[in-house]
Amino acid sequence: MGNLNSLIIANGRTWERVFIPNEEAADKTSCLRKGVASSIYETKSQKVIRVFVNGPLPLHNRDSEFCSNKIGNCGCIHSEVLACSWILCNPELHDLILLSSYSPCKSCANMIILSDRILGVVYRTKTEHYEDGEELLVRNGIPCVHIHDCDFR
Q: Of the spans 12-26, 114-128, 136-150, which averages the highest pLDDT?
């Protein structure tokens, strides 16, 4: 969708309001490493319809001992994966934008591609691996935009 940048710029102030701040996501998760939130924005209703935070599966009931705090192997599920799984369970959803507090990693980018209903990804903070996930998304026709790279004038 080539006009994602236009949509982002037109709704710039809205995007800033719908993002969950990284600090707030950290308060909502039981992941010991990093709090990440992903929101699903429905273009038809122009609303955020669901928010997910990373962490252990709900069956672990926010058990902080489940997270090992090891880089790349803490055991928690990324918020993007939880969001995409929910999208796949709700076939009536289409034309969605994923808003994430951090840039998606390569595994999350793969899940976004597989969900087949996300038009684009907008993220707030670049991580050390942002280029890998962003490149994979763009190569598969899904624009990936760092919100702070946009000019909202």
A: 114-128
102 with 22: CB under 8 angstroms?
Answer: yes
- Interatomic CA distance for residues 118 and 42, integer angstroms: 9
Residues 145 and 120: beta-carbon distance below 8 Å? yes
Token pair belonging to 143: 């624009």
Amino acid identity of residue 49, one-letter, is I
pTM of the model: 0.80
* Rounded-to-integer distance, Cα 112 and Cα 99, Å: 12
Place of tokens 């090992």: 68
Nearest to 28 by CA among 96, 82, 85: 82
- Gap between the Cα atoms of 59 and 10, Å rounded: 40
pLDDT, tens digit, 9 for 90 and up, residues 70-94 = 776 777 788 899 999 999 999 999 9
Task: Tell me the C-alpha distance between 40 and 51, whole Å.
Answer: 6
Rg for the chain (alpha carbons), in Å? 15
9-34: pLDDT as tens digits: 445 445 555 555 555 666 777 777 77
Q: Amino acid identity of 90? A: N
